[in-house]
Design brief:
By secondary structure, the chain is an alpha+beta fold. Helices cover 50% and strands 18% of the residues. The strands form two sheets. It has a two-stranded antiparallel ribbon with strand order 1-2.
Length: 148
């Protein structure tokens, strides 16, 4: 926390301090798994001393931001792997609807990505009947749940 921002070097280096008459700065590092990935900053136009609850809330928000940033990073990593894989991949929901596919799977089936995203596994499954596909999904989920 920095109070009296007008009397600090920040007043000279950040024009927002004088432009908006900022008086108090409160910052909290944003991190995930011990790595700092940014900061959460709150500024006030009054001399403000945060309560313990204010500090706790700032910590919770900073933690949530860290988790969300990591989720975005992992999602981008997954998308890159999925897009560049040589093998055909699809991600399907419990009802057998196709949620995502990579280019290799589209080439394999002959459908465009947009077409695939309107389809279900049964629409592209050459061997199984829709009932057999539903049973396979059920069995996969039972095995998956049993491994938790």
């Amino acid at each position: 926390m920095i109070r009296n921002l007008q009397q600090t070097p920040y007043a000279e280096t950040d024009s927002n301090v004088s432009c908006y008459n900022l008086k108090t700065y409160i910052g909290k590092t944003v991190s995930f798994e011990g790595t700092i990935i940014g900061s959460l900053c709150v500024v006030y136009q009054e001399d403000y001393i945060p309560s313990d609850d204010d500090k706790k809330l700032l910590g919770i928000v900073a933690s949530a931001i860290g988790v969300e940033e990591e989720r975005k990073r992992v999602e981008e990593e997954y998308k890159t792997i999925l897009r560049t894989a040589m093998d055909g991949f699809s991600i399907d929901d419990m009802q057998g609807r196709i949620l995502d596919v990579n280019d290799a799977y589209c080439r394999l089936t002959g459908y465009s990505r947009d077409e695939m995203l309107t389809m279900g596994i049964s629409d592209v499954e050459a061997v199984e009947t829709p009932g057999e596909t539903a049973q396979r999904i059920k069995k996969i989920m039972e095995v998956w749940r049993g491994s938790l």
